[in-house]
Write a structure and sequence with these properties.
Blueprint (H helix, E strand, L loop, with lengths): L1 H8 L8 E4 L1 H14 L4 E2 L4 H5 L3 H8 L7 E3 L2 H10 L4 E3 L16 E5 L2 H9 L4 E6 L14 H9 L4 E7 L11 H19 L6 E3 L3 H6 L7 E2 L28 E6 L2 E5 L17 E6 L16 E4 L2 E6 L7 E5 L8 E5 L9 H7 L4 H6 L6 E4 L1
Helix pairs in contact: 4-5, 6-7
Length: 378
């Protein structure tokens, strides 16, 4: 009866555009990453709407995975992770000081970047677990080496704070040269041993991101924070000796849409805005309700493809806010499903190709995917 009433008053509407998420692939990617660092804990990074995939959906897919932490960047992300799983949460982003009182302190560990936050958390007088973020060369945030003594003194004055782990972040792990990684690791260890000398005993040390998981072979680091790799994408250059090791990872995400219009266009006529495309022969133009508001970059106009069954069709004309247009053949009909983005990394409509034609990187492409598009787990 409940489901009948729900369908009556809140009917399910099937959308034109759908983001498909392959749970099996996500878990296989996680398993492979774990095999690279079997001694380490793996903390999946779910910031920025789980790299565009859908935070709620990815949390649900990971809730029985056994990972020690889910890493999020903000209070709203924390709230979603808390609602849809029982996994402890690592808050890697900063927040306003007054917001710390609103977290479930039994479920949450905080990455701490500065003296002021440590002092505030200490004054709360509650048992709070923290991961101290060390600035090892990124120079965006974190405790600098010359201020570590002040940080140690502050930590020692607040016995309720538990320095659980110590962390940092690579700034150049996707470079072929490992010189910067070596320098950062050396600085991290110097700062870590100063903490040991002061009487602290952090259980884990983590600095490695996705690329770092492939490049570090040092048991000193016993935790890693994969982001882009978890979702199946390779941050390394194609000439990197380790590039092919990524073949064991596959993209989790694909996107489909529908053909909503077919137009016959004759020589001398135009397609879309600003006279960007003029056919020289009679052509059939298919319109799809997927434009730059949904995700596609206007910069990529005329350079990307969609797939209908087994055939790729080129996008033509200027990509519009909610529409894009493609030259198709007679096999395409109104209502047909088309693939906007493939989960095959070598396809013409892969994310790698889309990012390249958009003059950006896969990270930026992913996180700009419209949050309003329905995500479906398969």
């Amino acid at each position: 009866m409940f489901w009948f009433l729900r369908s009556l008053f809140h009917p399910s509407v099937k959308p034109m555009n759908i983001v498909w998420l392959r749970k099996r692939i996500l878990l296989e990617n996680l398993e492979y990453l774990q095999s690279l660092q079997p001694q380490a804990g793996i903390f999946p990074v779910l910031k920025s709407n789980a790299y565009g995939h859908g935070l709620k959906q990815i949390v649900r897919m990971l809730r029985n995975s056994g990972v020690p932490y889910l890493a999020v960047d903000s209070f709203p992300e924390y709230a979603v992770a808390k609602k849809y799983s029982d996994i402890p949460i690592l808050m890697i982003g900063e927040t306003l000081l007054e917001n710390y009182k609103k977290f479930d302190l039994k479920r949450t560990t905080f990455c701490v970047y500065n003296l002021g936050t440590i002092r505030y958390l200490g004054r709360l007088g509650k048992a709070i677990k923290i991961h101290l973020f060390l600035n090892t060369g990124m120079n965006r945030e974190g405790v600098q080496e010359d201020e570590l003594s002040n940080i140690i003194n502050e930590l020692q004055s607040h016995p309720t704070l538990v320095l659980e782990w110590v962390m940092s972040h690579f700034f150049d792990a996707d470079n072929i040269s490992d010189m910067n990684l070596t320098e950062q690791i050396a600085r991290f260890k110097r700062m870590y041993y100063k903490l040991l000398d002061a009487g602290f005993a952090p259980e884990r040390r983590h600095i490695g991101n996705s690329a770092g998981m492939f490049k570090i072979s040092d048991d000193f680091f016993n935790a890693y924070r994969p982001g882009i790799a978890l979702y199946g994408y390779n941050p390394l250059r194609s000439d990197d000796p380790l590039y092919k090791k990524w073949n064991n990872l596959l993209p989790v995400l694909s996107i489909t849409s529908r053909v909503i219009s077919l137009q016959t266009v004759w020589p001398g006529e135009w397609v879309s805005y600003q006279y960007e495309y003029k056919p020289y022969d009679k052509e059939t133009i298919a319109t799809v309700p997927f434009g730059y508001a949904e995700w596609l970059s206007r910069t990529a106009s005329g350079k990307i493809f969609i797939k209908h069954r087994k055939t790729f069709f080129r996008q033509v004309g200027t990509i519009c806010m909610n529409l894009s247009t493609y030259v198709v053949d007679s096999a395409v009909h109104i209502g047909d499903e088309v693939e906007i983005l493939s989960d095959n990394p070598r396809a013409k409509n892969s994310l790698y190709n889309l990012a390249q034609q958009s003059w950006t990187i896969v990270y930026e492409s992913l996180v700009k995917l419209d949050r309003g598009i329905r995500r479906e787990i398969i």
